[in-house]
Amino acid sequence: MDILESINMAVKTLTANKTRSTLTMLGIIIGNASVIMMVGVGQGAQRYASQQFESLGPNVLFIIPGSEKAQNRSVDRPRSLTLEDAKAIASQVPTVSAVAPQLQSQLLVTYRNKKADTSITGITPDFTVVRDFNVARGRFITDLDVQRRNRVVALGSDLAKKLFDGADPIGQEIRIRNISFQVVAVMQAKGAFLGSNQDDVALIPLTTMASRLVGRTSPYGTSISFINVNARDEASINAAQFQITNLLRRRHKIVNENDFTIRNQKDALEIVGNVTGALTLMLAAIAGISLFVGGIGIMNIMLVSVRERTQEIGLRKAIGAAPNDILTQFMIEAIILSAIGGLIGTTIGVGGITLVGAVTPLKAGVSVPAILIAVGVSGGIGLFFGVFPARQAAKLDPIVALRSA
Amino acid sequence: MQKTIIRLEHIFKTYGSGDIQVNALSDVNLTIEAGEYCAIMGPSGSGKSTAMNVIGCLDRPTSGAYFLDGLDVSTIADGELAKIRNRNLGFVFQQFHLLPQLSALENVMLPMVYAGVPNTERKERAAEALTRVGLANRMGNRPNQLSGGQQQRVAIARAIVNHPVVLLADEPTGALDSHTTQEVMNIFAELNASGITVVMVTHEPEVARLTRRVVWFRDGQVVESHLAPTELGHMLAA
Q1: In terms of domains, do A239 and A351 share one?
Q2: Which of A99, A284, B15, B49 is the most buried (most CB within 10 A)?
Q3: CB of B196 within 8 A of CB of B168?
């Protein structure tokens, strides 16, 4: 018996039992759709995060407190970086073009009866250069503001809207932790970075932040959260990293392990890649389990089908079907079920990804390898889980099979 | 000159093992010539069904030799046996055993599928066989759209479509009323008249009387191998 004939026969049998065939396929459909969607969403998240870091530009370095080892622990960062460190980097490292130290904290901001719990960021004027922020109205915080610890604030566009409701905030007094600040600028909208709103912020001079709001000091001077550094160009990234390391080790009098970590864009992308890669793998694994369960569903139904069709099998054997013909027939039924289920699942998965891409910032990619793997795996599942029932069918004794009425 | 189609020599069929062995067939010897029309009868448990399974190559004898059309089939491998059932034998069962998802024509085509006959020839031959059993106008019907007698005629068409040397029928009228029994028996008679060897197991004397030879089984043995249907009264009385 040739294979086309077997396929034809399997299709007839499967269409004669439409409800059952559909239900059997459902497991594979769901499994397949979820594999493709999960992998797609995972990769979308990866791409999104990567784009965010790439948008920072290739020249950026981040200096964060704590040793490389400490970065993996969820403990409070030591207060090892100071404003003086940032100044030293700016004045002594030749490959650096701009330095922007930041000290941030989540604090309550009020204007008359309006309140907002907002990220307050202490900065220096170079912040606009390094982080690519622009002033929409008013003037930005100056060196003089930083020197004199002036109580001035630049509002992010969303925060301005929240507190002033369309009125002009410039020149108004707002209160941060009950200390009054004069609004000098409203920033241009910037959008979200890794899911956090960069427009719901209040920017104040770093020195004001340290002395009046959070009061972080260390043996070395004014303690800060981290430092953003722009290297002169992409080629001088490594030199800058090296020089900053040397400078800070000297300044902190370090002999052993660094009490700070310098990350460049490549490092950041790598970390993001690791995290989202693990996420993708986990999602794929969960979806894979449902695919496996779908396969067991196929096996289960096929076994029932063999039991139910003993008479048919006996008859086929009596009129000349060899055990191999019966085996082939049931295998093909299982493979057709899983392959069609796989195809439908893939279509749904691709549709789902497109939908997710349309309504969220996760531009989930339709991953061709994921599709190939999912369809291949579901075909393989049909093969794997079809073998056992098919062998049961092939082994049936025609006499017993014919007699069971 | 007559040609021997079926020859059973010292056939034993034993079930169970050790102390509880049961001989379903013990030393059965039987010869059936080409063109015969023969009924196998006997009380239940006499071994007539087991003999039929052996003759039909559905079961192997425990010992003894079975020659079908000159070939010793008692030692042949499973896959080969399937081929012999396909090409040399035609089966008709009490319960028809038609596949419900296939039309009458497709059911009759089935044995040719396993024989590897090309599709167009399959259709032609199946239509021919259905015409022969008087169902030329029912080819597209599913089994559940046919009466019992019609279903059995489809099954007969399926049994003869590969031109077997023997047509084997196991209680072919067991599920039919007396009118359709007559119809089906007429077809067997016509097929036999055209040269096909017919062997059937039955427990109905009226059916056996329509054949030309009766083989009587008792306790796993052939007790009468050439009984004329007219003499059936003696055996039934005994």
Answers
A1: no
A2: A99
A3: no
Higher pLDDT, A83 or B192: B192
Identify the CA nearest to B205 among candidates B44, B36, B42, B32: B42
Is the Cβ pair A315, B97 closer than 8 Å? yes
User: pLDDT averaged over chain B?
Assistant: 91
Find, in chain B, the residue whose alpha carbon is nearest to that of A16. B101
In-domain check, residue A191: yes
pLDDT value at A270 more than 90 = no
**Residues of B with CB below 8 A from A9's CB?**
113
A355 in contact with B, Cβ within 8 Å? no
Q: How confident is the model at residue A357 (pLDDT cuts 50, 70, 90)?
A: confident
Coil, strand or helix at B135 = coil
Instruction: Kindly report the nearest CA distance between residue B115 and chain A, in angstroms.
Output: 7
Domain count, chain A: 2
Question: CATH number of B4-237: 3.40.50.1820, 3.40.50.300, 3.40.630.10, 3.30.300.350?
Answer: 3.40.50.300
| A323 part of contact set with chain B, CB < 8 Å | yes
- Residue A78's pLDDT band, with cuts at 50, 70 and 90, is low
Give the one of B58, B83, B101 whose C-beta lies nearest to A318's C-beta: B58
DSSP string, B194-232: TT-EEEEE-S-HHHHTTSSEEEEEETTEEEEEEE-GGGH
Check if A7 contacts B (Cβ < 8 Å). no
CA atoms within 13 A on the CB side of B3: 12
Domain limits, chain B: 4-237
Q: Which of A315, A326, A328, A332 to mutate to test the interface with B (most CBs of B within 10 A)?
A: A315
> What tokens appear for A185 in the block?
């600028």
User: Same domain, yes or no, for A249 and A275?
Assistant: no
Task: Please tell me which of the candidates A320, A402, A405 has its beta carbon nearest to residue B82.
Answer: A320
Contacts of A323 in chain B (CB under 8 A): 78-79, 82
Give me the percent of chain B exceeding a pLDDT of 70: 99
Q: Are residues A249 and A351 in the same domain?
A: no
ipTM: 0.91
Distance in Å from the first CA to the final CA of chain B: 36
Does residue A16 sit at the B interface (CB-CB below 8 Å)?
yes
CB-neighbour burial class of residue B44 (10 A; exposed 0-12, middle 13-18, buried 19+): exposed
Distance from CA of A23 to the nearest CA of B (A): 19
**pLDDT of A247-258, one tens digit each?**
999 888 888 888
pLDDT in tens, B3-31: 899 999 999 999 887 788 888 999 999 99
A299 shares its domain with A217: no
State yes or no: pLDDT of A106 exceeds 70: yes
Q: Which of A2, A5, A320 has the CB atom closest to B85's CB atom?
A: A320
Q: Where are the alpha helices (DSSP H) in A309-367?
A: 310-318, 323-359
- pLDDT beyond 90 at B153: yes
